[in-house]
Amino acid sequence: MNAKRQLLALTAGLALAGFSSFATAQEIYIPLISKGFQHQFWQAVKQGADQAAKDYKVKVTFEGPETEQQVDKQIDMLSAALAKKPAAIGFAALDSKAAIPLLKKAQAAKIPVIAFDSGVDSDIVLTTAQTDSKAAAALAADKMAEKIGGEGEVAVIGHDQTSTTGTGRRDGFVDQIKAKYPKIKVVDIQYGGGDHLKSAEIAKTLLQAHPQLKGIFGTNEGSAIGAGKGLKEAKKTGVVIIGFDSGKAQKDMINDGTIAGAITQNPVGIGYKTVEAAVKALKGEKLPKIIDTGFYYYDKSNMKDAKIAAVLYD
């Protein structure tokens, strides 16, 4: 129901968008190549894209590799999608540089490229529908500092160091700690590829290496769930975890106190705005460089607030 409420809000005013005559043209195909499929986050992004496809009467496909380490597989998917000569394409880059040769081909073929979630290091992309990763992670740092009393050792479990979300969330957290909290030290940064099992092992290693550790920031759904799993397996209490995204497992850990709270994005909105931007590009409309889809901090106390509940997913 939450996602449905959000979709209703996103679709308001479409009748005034001047799209009706454009929609009568030959079927418009817009493939979206995602970073993965294993997290519920991507299913929520897909839901938003599917709704936009219905509203704008275009054909959308949504696919991604099984894991967020499979850069080569994602590049193959992008290549296959471009071979179908789509009207436009949406792309969430696992590696912001690796895809540039293919994106240049898209540009040469006059196929508009819309980035989502992760940006691309190129001006080929017309716009990026995304969360402001650095600002969101800075808020995570503020919440961490608040929870641990403004001093102590903390660590980061990142999901990667090649995507703009991976680097942005890492740097946003670390930079905010350095700038505002001189008594807090980031003692380690490790990468679990967004895999909750690998991230759990990293969390246990961090606890052993840093017995005074007060907090862990997990930069995506799998990282945060893994951190919580690692703490449970190590039977360790008193360590504050701040996560990112939502999903049933993370929400359950917030409710049982394993995770203190998390930053939620607006995944349905990201998917919807990606398809909407592609349609606008095809109509010749000028797009902003960034479509900021917003973020919120949530914990056990506000998960049921209407504004928060609308952007959480299971």
Automatic annotation (TrEMBL):
Residues 32-286 form the Periplasmic binding protein domain. Residues 1-25 form the signal peptide. It holds the Pfam family Peripla_BP_4. PANTHER family: D-ALLOSE-BINDING PERIPLASMIC PROTEIN-RELATED. SUPFAM superfamilies: Periplasmic binding protein-like I (SSF53822). It is found in: Cell envelope. Belongs to the bacterial solute-binding protein 2 family. Its main location: other. Keywords: Signal. This is Ribose transport system substrate-binding protein. It comes from the Bacteria. The keyword Signal applies. Gene3D superfamilies: 3.40.50.2300.
